[in-house]
Amino acid sequence: MGESWMLGFDRITFDPNVMGGRACIRGMRITVSLILNLAANGLSEREILTDYPYLEPEDIYQALAYAAWLADESVYAPELVAA
After folding, report:
1. Most exposed: 11, 25, 47, 67, by fewest CB within 10 Å?
2. Which residues contact residue 69 at a Cβ distance below 8 angstroms, ignoring those fewer than 6 apart?
3. Cα dihedral sign for 32, 54, 26, 63?
4. 44 class by beta-carbon count within 10 Å (0-12 exposed, 13-18 middle, 19+ buried)
5. Per residue in 24-65, pLDDT tens?
6. Nearest in space to 18 (alpha carbons), one of 33, 3, 31, 7
Protein backbone atom coordinates (compact mmCIF):
# COMPACT_ATOMS: atom_id res chain seq x y z
CA MET A 1 0.00 0.00 0.00
CA GLY A 2 1.21 3.52 -0.75
CA GLU A 3 1.35 6.42 1.67
CA SER A 4 -2.05 7.86 0.73
CA TRP A 5 -3.41 6.91 4.17
CA MET A 6 -1.09 9.51 5.65
CA LEU A 7 -2.98 12.18 3.73
CA GLY A 8 -6.37 10.99 5.00
CA PHE A 9 -7.08 8.80 1.98
CA ASP A 10 -7.36 5.49 3.77
CA ARG A 11 -9.46 3.95 0.99
CA ILE A 12 -7.02 4.82 -1.81
CA THR A 13 -4.40 2.10 -2.26
CA PHE A 14 -1.42 1.50 -4.50
CA ASP A 15 -0.11 -1.99 -5.19
CA PRO A 16 2.22 -2.78 -8.09
CA ASN A 17 0.42 -6.13 -8.43
CA VAL A 18 -3.05 -4.57 -8.74
CA MET A 19 -3.87 -2.57 -11.87
CA GLY A 20 -0.18 -1.81 -12.42
CA GLY A 21 0.09 0.24 -9.24
CA ARG A 22 -2.58 2.76 -10.22
CA ALA A 23 -4.66 4.37 -7.48
CA CYS A 24 -7.38 1.87 -6.54
CA ILE A 25 -10.20 1.63 -4.04
CA ARG A 26 -9.39 -0.52 -1.00
CA GLY A 27 -7.05 -2.83 -2.93
CA MET A 28 -9.78 -3.83 -5.39
CA ARG A 29 -9.39 -3.72 -9.14
CA ILE A 30 -11.51 -0.56 -9.21
CA THR A 31 -9.38 2.45 -10.07
CA VAL A 32 -9.94 5.97 -8.88
CA SER A 33 -9.93 7.01 -12.54
CA LEU A 34 -12.86 4.66 -13.28
CA ILE A 35 -14.95 6.26 -10.55
CA LEU A 36 -14.01 9.74 -11.75
CA ASN A 37 -14.89 8.87 -15.34
CA LEU A 38 -18.25 7.45 -14.29
CA ALA A 39 -19.05 10.63 -12.34
CA ALA A 40 -17.75 12.86 -15.15
CA ASN A 41 -20.05 11.07 -17.59
CA GLY A 42 -23.09 11.87 -15.47
CA LEU A 43 -23.62 8.74 -13.38
CA SER A 44 -25.05 9.50 -9.99
CA GLU A 45 -23.72 8.06 -6.75
CA ARG A 46 -26.69 5.69 -6.68
CA GLU A 47 -25.99 4.49 -10.24
CA ILE A 48 -22.31 3.87 -9.48
CA LEU A 49 -23.16 1.95 -6.32
CA THR A 50 -25.78 -0.09 -8.20
CA ASP A 51 -23.31 -0.96 -10.97
CA TYR A 52 -20.52 -1.70 -8.46
CA PRO A 53 -22.29 -3.05 -5.35
CA TYR A 54 -19.02 -3.77 -3.53
CA LEU A 55 -18.27 -0.04 -3.43
CA GLU A 56 -19.41 2.15 -0.56
CA PRO A 57 -20.38 5.83 -0.70
CA GLU A 58 -17.16 6.79 1.12
CA ASP A 59 -15.16 5.16 -1.71
CA ILE A 60 -16.70 7.62 -4.18
CA TYR A 61 -16.17 10.58 -1.86
CA GLN A 62 -12.52 9.72 -1.34
CA ALA A 63 -11.92 9.22 -5.06
CA LEU A 64 -13.30 12.71 -5.69
CA ALA A 65 -11.33 14.19 -2.79
CA TYR A 66 -8.14 12.50 -3.98
CA ALA A 67 -8.63 13.95 -7.48
CA ALA A 68 -9.24 17.39 -6.00
CA TRP A 69 -6.06 17.07 -3.92
CA LEU A 70 -4.07 16.09 -7.02
CA ALA A 71 -5.55 18.96 -9.04
CA ASP A 72 -4.51 21.42 -6.34
CA GLU A 73 -0.83 20.68 -6.91
CA SER A 74 1.25 23.40 -8.53
CA VAL A 75 2.56 22.66 -11.99
CA TYR A 76 5.52 24.61 -13.29
CA ALA A 77 6.11 24.63 -17.02
CA PRO A 78 9.89 24.60 -17.64
CA GLU A 79 9.70 27.50 -20.09
CA LEU A 80 7.93 29.68 -17.52
CA VAL A 81 10.38 28.87 -14.74
CA ALA A 82 13.37 29.75 -16.96
CA ALA A 83 11.93 33.14 -17.93
Report:
1. 47
2. 7, 9
3. positive
4. exposed
5. 999 999 999 999 999 999 999 999 999 999 999 999 999 999
6. 31
Domain that holds residue 14: 4-82
Report yes or no: 25 and 11 within 8 Å, Cβ to Cβ: yes
Q: Nearest Cα to 14, choosing from 71, 68, 69, 66?
A: 66
pLDDT value at residue 8: 82
**Nearest one of 10, 35, 31 to 22, comparing CA atoms:** 31
Beta-carbon count within 10 A of 41 CB: 7
The dihedral formed by the CA atoms of 7, 11, 22 and 36, expressed in degrees to the nearest 10:
-100
Q: What angle do CA 71, 74, 75 make, to 5 degrees?
A: 95
- What CATH number does residue 13 fall under? 1.10.10.10
Distances (CA, A) of 11 to 2, 48, 56, 69, 80: 11, 17, 10, 14, 36
